[in-house]
Amino acid sequence: MPIVLDGRATTDKVMEEVASEVEKLAEQGVTPGLALVLTGDDKFSARYVKLKKKRAEKIGMYCEYHHLEETTDEELVSLIEKLNKDPKIHGVMVQLPLAEGLDELKAVDAIAPEKDVDGLSPNTLGKLLMGEDCYPPAGVEAIMELFKRYELDVEGKHWLVAGETTFLSKPLTAYLMNKKLRVTHVGPGCPHLPDLLKKADVISTELFNKHMVKPEMVKD
Question: With pLDDT > 70 as the criterion, what percentage of the chain qualifies?
Answer without folding.
Answer: 96
